[in-house]
Design a protein that fits this description.
- This protein is of the alpha+beta class.
- It folds into three domains: 103 residues, no CATH class; 184 residues, Beta-Lactamase (2-Layer Sandwich), CATH 3.30.450; 143 residues, Histidine kinase-like ATPase, C-terminal domain (Heat Shock Protein 90, 2-Layer Sandwich), CATH 3.30.565.10.
- The chain is 54% helix and 16% strand.
- It starts with a helix and ends in a 5-residue tail after the last strand.
Length: 470
């Protein structure tokens, strides 16, 4: 910048010397010449250089061309007005021209970023065979954006792949930590580490060492990396299906492949809505509509994940990893998923903060979602839904709705697989939800029971022993 400022002062000096030594013209012509030079400087170099040139031009104009010449004194009051007007005009003109130049630079940068994002997405989606593995994805990102260092952590395989010309300035464990916590970290070494999530579940992270890329571009790169990882997993699931076609593992493999077939387009749409949210004005109708689409995509991804998990449980293809959790923590992650479905329902939560439960967190969350979904589907909008919990040797969780009653003859069959009662015919469902909850309870060594009456409504009680299955 110092060189450009010096060149700007030299141009002002040249105009001054030209009119002092070679050509005699009126002050108006000289002022216009200064303005032309200032506008050229603003257009080519920027606001700082043109502002310095404006001040220098005013001083030269006063000293060399306004009487008394050779001093900074102005004898005629009208010349004061002319000098101030010239100064304001020069500064405002330089500011406007400089900002227009900056906007043009920003537009070109955005266009370049969009072209690179398109090239990256094309490279990832059209690559064949092993080109979608984490190492190749990291290499595509580094080559497309000319980055010094790119790291990609795949949580499923617990591998970290690096690409770029620079040495890796951080340990791989930093990427694993960001993936677990699900947030973005700006490391002092210059790396930006972004968690990759699908359906609200962390699947990895990407580290990028680059200056000048906006947060929107960085998150777009992360979304495209997620698509590449999901595509690689889909290909792996397909390959496993081919290899396990005549084995007992075929069913689970087919379910995985089916889930990935759903999630790949969902992830692409999620990446698109993320870009649209960043590019629309908060509070505008377009922004609100895109946010609705984004939320519904999250819900759809969750439904796909739950459906596959339920089919796995129904097939007996699942393992229970019991850990001690605070029940309120599990509920706080589960209840927001149902906010848009509450309508007129009144939700009452009676769970002490110190209630602990020994369970597989993912399976427990799935059981709670199924119980809440059942309560919402089979109770009118004005009814009350209660969640109660206590601990006395075992953890007891009760989900009650006050608006529906199950006939006595149907109660023994409600938790059976595919059972649909008489009043269920107009309610969407598969008849698997409560059966899955019972299987989860039994896998933990617990039970699922129900009571239903006109006075108390319908309550499902999930009891899980402390210490896990016995």
């Amino acid at each position: 910048m110092a060189i450009r400022i010096g060149a700007s002062l030299a141009l002002v000096a040249f105009v001054t010397a030209f009119y002092v030594s070679l050509v005699q013209v009126n002050p108006t012509t000289i002022a216009v010449s200064y303005l032309v030079v200032i506008l050229l400087i603003a257009t080519q170099w920027g606001i700082a250089e043109s502002t310095v040139a404006s001040v220098a031009a005013v001083l030269c104009f006063n000293f060399f061309f306004l009487p008394p010449v050779g001093t900074f004194t102005i004898a005629d009051p009208q010349n004061w007005v002319a000098l101030v007007a010239f100064l304001l005009t020069a500064i405002i003109a330089s500011q406007v021209s400089g900002r227009a130049r900056q906007r043009n630079i920003d537009a070109l940068a955005r266009q370049r970023d969009l072209e690179r994002l398109y090239a990256l997405s094309r490279a990832l989606l059209l690559s064949e065979g092993s080109a979608s593995i984490p190492a190749a994805i990291a290499r595509h990102i580094a080559e497309t954006f000319e980055l010094d260092a790119v790291g990609l952590y795949d949580q499923r395989t617990d591998t970290v792949s690096w690409a770029g010309k620079d040495d890796v300035p951080i340990a791989d464990e930093k990427l694993r930590e960001v993936s677990r916590r699900g947030h973005t970290v700006h490391d002092p070494t210059g790396l930006t580490i972004i968690a990759i999530q699908l359906g609200g579940v962390a699947t990895g992270s990407v580290a990028i060492k680059a200056a000048g890329l906006s947060d929107t571009v960085l998150h777009s790169i992360a979304n495209l990396a997620a698509i590449g990882l999901e595509r690689a997993r889909g290909e792996a699931a397909t390959a496993q299906a081919e290899a396990a076609r005549h084995s007992s593992e075929l069913r689970a493999t087919v379910l995985d492949a089916l889930a990935h077939e759903f999630k790949t387009p969902l992830t692409s749409m999620k990446a698109a809505t993320g870009d649209l949210i960043a590019s629309t004005t908060p509070g505008s109708r377009d922004h609100e509509l895109v946010e609705i689409v984004d939320e519904e995509l999250d819900r759809l991804q969750g439904l796909v994940t739950d459906a596959v998990q339920m089919l796995r449980i129904d097939a007996g293809d699942f393992a229970v990893q019991v850990e001690r959790h605070r029940l309120m923590d599990v509920l706080q992650r589960t209840l927001p998923l149902f906010q848009h479905r509450l309508d007129g329902h009144r939700l009452i939560l009676e769970v002490a903060g110190d209630v602990m439960v020994d369970a597989d967190r993912g399976l427990l969350a799935l059981a709670l979602r199924q119980l809440l979904d059942n309560a919402l589907k089979y109770s009118p909008p004005t009814s009350t839904i209660e969640i109660q919990a206590g601990s006395n040797g075992a953890t007891e969780i009760i989900v009650r709705n006050s608006g529906s009653v199950i006939p006595d003859r149907e109660q023994p069959h409600v938790v059976e697989r595919f059972f649909r009662g008489a009043r269920s015919r107009n309610v969407p469902g598969t008849g698997m939800g409560l059966s899955i909850v019972r299987q989860i309870a039994q896998a933990h060594g617990g039970t699922l029971s129900l009571t239903s009456s006109a006075d108390a409504g319908t309550a499902f009680t999930l009891i899980l022993p402390r210490g896990g299955p016995r």
